[in-house]
Amino acid sequence: MPVITCIEDLRQIYQRRAPRMFYDYAESGSWTEQTFRENTTDFAKIRLRQRVAVDMLNRSTRSTMIGEEVAMPVALAPVGLTGMQHADGEILAARAAEAFGVPFTLSTMSICSIEDVAAHTTKPFWFQLYVMKDQDFVSRTLARAKAAGVSALVLTLDLQILGQRHRDLKNGLSAPPKLTLPTMMNLATKWRWGMGMLGTKRRFFGNIVGHAKGVADASSLSSWTAEQFDPQLDWSKVARLKEEWGGKLILKGILDAEDARMAAEVGADAIIVSNHGGRQLDGALSSIRVLPSILDAVGDRVEVHLDGGIRSGQDVLKAVAMGARGTYIGRAFVYGLGALGQAGVTRALEVIHRELDISMALCGERDVHDLGRHNLLVPKDFE
Ligand code: FNR
């Protein structure tokens, strides 16, 4: 294995190895990509306070997210088409997360099915739901998740309408990829991805498309999404889905204090402060920047989690010290998976854990629960 010391190393290997269409799918944001960029650059504006001469012998990053024990306050975010980045991608990522002791979230838009992932893991995982117009599809999917022992439902609220990503349109991203001359040439030189896609079509259709009413083909992902996703999702539907699910519920895609209050009102166990990794409303503020206003709005009525722009353990430290109970990584684990399969996801988690542990110690903290605003210098306009 090449020497990998940081997430950026994994990104570079992934970029070298992956066909451009798949790299672009992961590494892009919507429209001008301002929000996508600021998710990471805003983390860099928060600085850490160094402390010295503190006993650092016994340290712990262990915590809980919605009551589940985690080796560190980091979960794998739901990422659609993970199985196109590597054969059995969702299974490999779930196994890496399970071995490390952090939650894995399976996307509705997965290649491997809920049942596939359940058959290859031993602990319950989380499942992310996109609400489709077809209510039977939603009910059947919830029933499948329950039968597979899923321990929390992550309901994504910020993708009723798909934001536009220029690169996906230009690359003609589809599931499975269309075999045009340029894609075939690209895949011929990137054989590992070609292998990864054998079975992709059958699986994706079996898993998602085949279950949604009246769909014969998912040739263009954006037009299929536009047809299927429920543009009328509102808080009353969220409440009904909570009832139907009956288990732990995490609401994903909250960026506004008023929406955070509504989520607490509905009785969610947690919310994820998220702008979908800068893939939906370009021009929205970064997640870390809105976190303080959301914490002020909900107090301790609901657990507040955050994703968007986390590329290091220092970023995790900053989010937790600002008040987030947990964080999620999206691209950081996809880079690892695309670069090196399951070992790459494990490496991404190891890198982040090590950075978190060392940075905590250098901030004078032994326990992740002791992190707080006293560890940070936060720019005034983050309030
Ligand atoms: C996503 N995200 C996402 N979210 C979701 O709820 N369902 C999904 O299917 C997907 N699919 C998806 C694909 C890809 C390629 C990316 C990069 C992201 C958003 C994801 O869960 C998370 O919010 C962001 O990835 C967090 O930002 P970072 O960590 O990627 O910067």
From TrEMBL:
A Pfam family the protein falls into: FMN_dh
Sorted UniProt keywords: Flavoprotein, FMN, Oxidoreductase
PANTHER family: 2-HYDROXYACID OXIDASE 1, S -2-HYDROXY-ACID OXIDASE-RELATED
Keyword set includes Flavoprotein: yes
FMN hydroxy acid dehydrogenase domain sequence ranges: 1-381
Assigned protein family: Belongs to the FMN-dependent alpha-hydroxy acid dehydrogenase family.
EC supergroup of this enzyme: oxidoreductase
Cofactor: FMN
Statement: the UniProt record of this protein carries the keyword Zinc-finger: no
GO molecular function annotations of the record: L-lactate dehydrogenase (NAD+) activity
Enzyme Commission identifier(s): 1.1.1.27
Name of the protein described by the UniProt record: L-lactate dehydrogenase
InterPro entries: Aldolase_TIM, Alpha-hydoxy_acid_DH_FMN, FMN-dep_DH, FMN_HAD, FMN_hydac_DH_AS
